[in-house]
Amino acid sequence: MACMSPMFRRSDRRTESKAPAEHLVTLIRKPGCHLCDDAQEVIEKVCADLGVPWEGKDITEDEELHRQYWEQIPVVLVDGAQHTFWRVNEERLRKALAG
C-alpha cells in the first residue's frame, strides 16, 4: 500500500477555514433605504465583534451593481459571494464569518 506524501496531497480551499479577519463583508446599498440602514447596523456590530473588515458600495454609483442587484437591495456579500439580501440575520452572518 502506497503512502501519499504530504507534498502531493491536494488542498480543497472550499473546506479550509478562514480566520474572521481574512473575510470581507460587502454591503451593496442605496441612499434612503431603511432596509439598507438596518443591514448596516447588523454588519457593523458583527464585523466589530469578530474583527472582520467590511465595505459599503452604492448601486447609484456603479452601473454593473445596479443592473445586477437593484431588485434585491440591500445585498450582503461575504468574500465576493452573495450571502443574503433584504434582511440580514445576525446569527447567520456570524456563523458564515466564524468558520
Automatic annotation (TrEMBL):
Coiled-coil stretches noted in the UniProt entry, renumbered to this chain: none
One Pfam match: Glrx-like
SUPFAM superfamilies xrefs: Thioredoxin-like
Protein name per Swiss-Prot or TrEMBL: NrdH-redoxin
Organism: Streptomyces populi
Species classification: Bacteria, Bacillati, Actinomycetota, Actinomycetes, Kitasatosporales
